[in-house]
Amino acid sequence: MSRPPIFPPPQFPPVKLRMFQRMPPAVFPAIMGLFGLGLALRRAATAQLVPAALAEVVLGAVSLIWAFAALGYLVKMAQRRGVLLEDLAVLPGRTGLAAMSLCVFLLAAVVLPYAPEVARAMMFAGLILHAGLALMILWWHRTVAPEARAVTPAWHLHFVGFIIAGVTAVPLGYDGFGQILLYLSLAVAVLIYAASLRQLIGRIPPAPLRPLLAIHLAPPSLLGLVAALLGYGVLAQSFAVFGALVLVALLVAARWITAAGFSALWGAFCFPLAAYGSLLIVLDGVWIWPGVAVLMATLAIVPLIAIKVFQGWTRGTLAAKTNAATA
Questions:
Q1: Closest to 222 in 3D by CA, of 188, 251, 199
Q2: CB 27, CB 310: distance < 8 Å
């Protein structure tokens, strides 16, 4: 008869963590969604659908939240060198770190109307930061066991997310750079879609990971937005149609996708929905009222998810549930 496993006795008094010692990267997808909501409201304000002050207040508040969370993660990294690699080893960590760096592009878009030179510097800083993170993820992918190398929708964040820089690059006059971002990101997105479709046919994703499927709405939304800014109207509308098909598929499968109940991965719903609303509003014409409908849904969904994620962050449960590394 085998002996029962022996566990170490609980420490008393309990170990008290230092500030930000277990800062969870999983908080950043929700912050990214709030950035997307604020930028969608700004585009709605340009179309005179909402007051401009509302968008700027939201964007200002979200910028401060991101700055606080990013500072917290930097403090965590400063406490122990290997913490970044440990967070990259888990899916919520990789997704959260990608969202953290992509928020630099979104912050550049926020400050663009006020300080174009600052926005330019932020955009290039974001490119360097996200490229470094993407290379680290590729290195991690080559070192893990084959069964851990499955393509996930989060790959869009890692390798297609550079397209967000185009939202700032084109208004700054970098049309050529915007075109490069558009076509390279489209090529990478197609490869990820193909790999994801092949995996989805062969293996049903486990219920806890299904919310990540919502990320598939982000590439057509952002590619369409950059195409619209470049003046490629037909291409932008084509992306909008494809995004509509993805959104309808997500809505039809909503109960199946959310079968596992709320988790930090619900942050994946936030930014893609907001980005798609932005695209439809920018296209104007027959797209404007569907865009308003998507924006209203974004206003209803994104803040609720963000509040629940932030509650888990402040209580310390988010770090435990997402296996965040401890410095």
A1: 188
A2: yes
Q: CA quadruple 24, 99, 294, 42: dihedral positive or negative?
A: positive
- Angle, vertex CA 38, rays to CA 37 and CA 42, nearest 5: 115
Q: How far apart are alpha carbons 298 and 291 in whole angstroms?
A: 10
Whole-prediction pTM: 0.93
- Look up tokens 């990214």; give the residue: 32
Contact 232, 186 (CB under 8 A): no
DSSP string, 204-217: PPPGGGGGGGGGGG
20 vs 78: CA distance, rounded Å: 10
Quote the distance between the C-alpha of residue 128 and its chain's center: 18
Q: What DSSP letter does each residue of 141-160 carry, written as one string?
A: HHHS-GGG----TTHIIIII
Please report how the helices 175-202 and 218-229 are oriented relative to each other, as an axis angle in degrees rounded to 10. 160
- Domains of the chain, residue spans: 25-313
Residue 187: CB atoms within 10 A of its CB come to 10
Structural fold of domain 25-313: Glycosyltransferase (1.50.10)
Rounded to 5 degrees, φ, ψ at 128 are -65, -45
pLDDT per residue over 184-243, tens digit each? 999 999 999 999 999 888 888 999 999 999 999 999 999 999 999 999 999 999 999 999
Burial class (CB in 10 A: 0-12, 13-18, 19+), 14: exposed
Q: Are 158 and 137 in contact (CB under 8 A)?
A: yes
How long is the chain? 327
Is 49:287 a contact under the CB 8 Å cutoff? no
Element (H, E) at 81: none
Closest CA to 181 of 216, 242, 229: 229
